[in-house]
Amino acid sequence: MAEPRFRWHPEARAFGPEGAEVHPLGEALQPQPLPAPEPAPLALCHALALGRGFRIGGTGAAPARGFETLTSGSTGRPRRIARGVESWTAGFAVNAGLFGLGPGRRVAVLGGLVHSLSLYGALEAMHLGAETHLLGGLRPDRQGRALAARRVDVVYATPAQLRGLDHPLPDLRLVLVGGSKLDPGLRAHLARLAPGAALREFYGAAETSFVTLADAATPAESVGRPYPGVEIEIRAGEVWVKSPYLFDGYALDPGEAPPLSGQARRAGDWLSVGEMGRIEGGCLYLSGRKGRMVTVADRNVFPEEIEAFLETLPGLARAAVLAEPDARRGQRLYAVVMGDPGQEGAILAALRARLEPLVAPRRLVWRRDWPETASGKSDLAALAKGA
Asked: What is the pTM of this model?
């Protein structure tokens, strides 16, 4: 049996950020790993056309089989993970059926190829024969103009990448979102820009790939129902996943020590990334990562739940909830936010009304900028230092 590999579909075409077509077998072809940390579109196309293994990040030779990419690294240094090609091509086949991806579609990715969602979207589009537009590296205003001028009809992006768009997109028909949930304000913004586009949100992680899929009928606080081929179990409040899309393990450079905490854990064919949640009505509801759980006045609190609430409030564009020591409660919460400082009183009142008085963040730290990781997630370590 032939070894699974990515392929350059005969009908696939790829275009770089400035619109120049990227050919799969161009000049100066070298059998080397993709450059780190950010692979060039041409290098990616070479790897795709030749069916070779590749790696993003780290040092040394590319793996003989499969490939290596990076986690998002929102609370620390990104980790490199090893995957078999079939763990992604299985998803390609599912998405081809779900969304009609393939020849005739124009697919764009807004992030750099160091981000696993963008890398996945680019590889999927070229593997299935779509026209692929690699827009990572452009400013959001230029990305919006490129999407419109190239008549892109499918976009893979994170909410952070979508927030920067501000150009009418009449040809856009499908927005595939990963990384975090869309807040109501961003949903309304996208509806104005692209009234003909359906929004489909994936929940997952670099280690798991897709876990759930949400659509317009999904309850607002849920991340959706299991993605085809995925089984989910809740064990002592923790989400465990079994599927054909799981990663092989963490990849380390020679002499590099494994991470001490925050790793995905396996139990037979099942895997958990430490997310806590519950299933109701066939839908998955998340509380937050076990690693971010904070104990305030003897109560376990998940900052992600409070962040999601904050981002629904008028006057706020971004929010991150952090903890600091407190002699009476053990820890107390505060929120780093970006938006309209004139709404501070109303925001604090809404927090007190929503949460128990001892749990509600007592202060807001306002920022004019918002540090992000390479994948577009909030850089929690930078936010904590700046607070």
From this structure: 0.81
